[in-house]
Predict the 3D structure of the following.
Amino acid sequence: MTAPEITPALLAKYDRPGPRYTSYPTVPEWTDAFGGSQYRDALREAAGAVDAPLSLYVHIPFCAQRCAYCGCNTVTAPVEHKVSRYLEDVEAEINRVAALLGGRKTVTQCHWGGGTPTYLDEARMRRLFQSLTDRFAFDADAEIAVETNPNAVTDSQLETLRGLGFNRISFGVQDLNPEVQRAVGRCQTPEQTEAMLARCRALGFGGINMDLIYGLPLQAMEPWMRTIEQVAAMRPDRIAVYSYAHLPSRFEHQRALDGLPRPDTAEKYALFAAARNRLIEAGYRPIGMDHFALPGDELARSLDNRTLHRNFMGYTVRQAPDQIGFGGSAISEVADCYSQNTKDLDLYHESLAKGEFPVERGMALSREDVIRRWVIRRLMCAFEVDLAQLNGLFDIDGEAYFSKERALLEAYRDEGMIDLQPDCWRVTPLGAPFIRNLCMVFDAYLKNTGKALFSRTI
């Protein structure tokens, strides 16, 4: 169960730019040939599955200030009237989508992300949530989640969210080392973090998650492990330990970190491995490639009963065949199509004002895309590909269909990363840290995609 020891030679060989596979095909493959009219058609097709549940995502891009490591679509300290206009636009988009979906209304998952969703005051939170519940029917045990910054949420906001029905919450902690916090612009004490956790527990939130990031500037083993010890002692239900993606060519504000020392590949993996081992010792179960959960948490139970899924919101137990995104930059996955809204809030507003969907790009998946997406998701969620299940779902001979990929996997098998049996291809503990590399074997588009678009796999 502990993280395997990996040689510097192996890290050097396999640490390369690669997708995180929150989607397949990945976003760089989507094009502006897929626009609002194609998205409208996909929604109409999805409306036919009246009894199928939906997953909803609302992007709230606003933040009081931008953290230097951030890779999200954010608007810092917005003018007040733009916040009001944005919420009106999101409501208009919700109404338009709901009208096309017709009788398909059941929601099993809803997630507010950002930005910082708790940038909104209580009245705006109520209004936004009301616009969702007016048009959709939330299942009695729906997962309703929100992301927040512990420094940017009040007791009153937490009470409001809980009163509306939110039952999951995630805190961006990143690192509790003050030196690292000052460098990246995200300062909070362990005491503040623990007090926020206790408050959420008292209000009845479950599945409480804390995000940590390894590979940030100035991180070193001893203070990093102090952060891990402190967080583990707080006992959140879930802990996500993400790799820092330094992509200053895409995110200009990250250039502020260029002059600071960052862990190299070997040091970065050592930080993750040490965190993983300590969290397992503390009773957490590893989930997927970067999540950990207490044994009684839904994520851990879903791993046991093989119902763990992955979408743009991360690992989830409330899988729905279609995910609808609302707001600037929001992504939808509908009727085997991907669609992403424009990031430009003025263009977002103008499109909706004209009665159009504010789609910037997207993609309609082929049958081959759907098959490869299934394989990649099984690797990311279960670390295996069950060939009998693959064959049954798609009426193919999986080993023959992926004969070229199987041949490529033999190199990984020889490294001890994957076991290739006739009925199942199963990733080994040594292969788990390289799961993105293994998924890349099945990516039919990767050779045409610029490497600079992706973070490194380790």
User: Anything to note?
Assistant: Residues 25-323 form a domain with the TIM Barrel fold (CATH 3.20.20.70). The longest strand covers residues 137-148. The chain has 16 helices and 19 strands.
